[in-house]
Amino acid sequence: MACYAEVVAHSRSLLFVPGHRPDRFDKAAQSGADAIVLDLEDAVGPEVKPAARENVDRWLSSGGHGVVRINGDGTPWHADDVAMLGGHQDVVVMVPKVNVPHQVADTLAQLAAGSRAIPLVETAAGVLAAEKLCAVPGVLRAVFGNADLGTEIGVDPDERAAFAYPRSRLVMACAALRLPPPIDGVTVRLRSLEAITEDARHAKAMGFTGKLCLHPSQVPVVNEILSPSDGQLAWAREVLSAAEDGSICQLRGQVVGTPMLERARRLLKFAS
To answer: Where does substrate bind (predicted)?
Structure first.
């Protein structure tokens, strides 16, 4: 497999799997998700966190891949999580509840060279510091945490209007820093096809190109919606063909200039 960070940078679906359930690791990896997130934090109770850490250590040591969501700094488990990851190469770590840049930088400083971080922006302070968090060297991509942020501000995590600002701020931060577009948060209604479909469409409309999944049934929906459609790809090829030399031209009554050419190139690159 290519460097796992490159896989994660372009992943549409990222499926959570609890670290204390090693029987699910391989199933998650075979689920069709572009990447999996081995969770040591919220999905794992305090009594089983040491066992979860050992499970993830064995999985990575055996050649398995996955983003690892560690416990946040200030918790009793953070140092041991980071120490375990320090023994591995090609690490992609999801750092939860980040409010200030040093929380990301300090974690990366303890990992092998070339390791990458995904800050989980899920607090009000984190949203306001989004640009600084994304500017930390080694940040691969950012992810929006609607569930924890909703709890902090007293809003249902499914309430899209309340999260328009933080979502847009994260999208803009990633774009300004030339990072891949961010990953959207979870859909907690696991068995609702309508809910995951609407949420994935909303994420795409806001500028996200990835989404966290809590159940394998959500994966194919997310993959389909966050992939460029056949119509979009046909448009992209037609645009690039019409302006082969990169000059401005007309296509179906519309001006094709540099912004449209760049969008067409990005669509085709993402599709590949």
So the answer is: 69, 122
> Each residue of 120-140: pLDDT tens digit?
999 999 999 999 999 999 999
pTM of the model as a whole = 0.89
Going from the C-alpha of 1 to that of each of 6, 69, 196, 201, the distances in angstroms are 10, 21, 29, 30
148 is in an annotated binding site: yes
What's the rounded mean pLDDT across residues 35-62?
A: 97
User: Of all helices (H) and strands (E), which one includes residue 157?
Assistant: none
**Bridge partner list, 213:** 15
> Distance (Å, rounded) from C-alpha 85 to C-alpha 181?
25
198 is in an annotated binding site: no
103 burial (CB, 10 Å; 0-12 / 13-18 / 19+) is: buried
Domains of the chain: which residue ranges?
4-225, 230-271
What secondary structure letter does DSSP report for 171? H
Q: Please state, in angstroms and rounded to a whole number, the distance separating the CA atoms of residues 59 and 69.
A: 14
Annotated binding-site residue? 54:
no
8 A C-beta contact, residue 219 and residue 28: no
Non-local (6+) Cβ contacts of 145 within 8 A are 96, 97, 120, 121, 122, 123, 185
Question: Which CATH superfamily is 4-225 part of?
Answer: Phosphoenolpyruvate-binding domains (3.20.20.60)
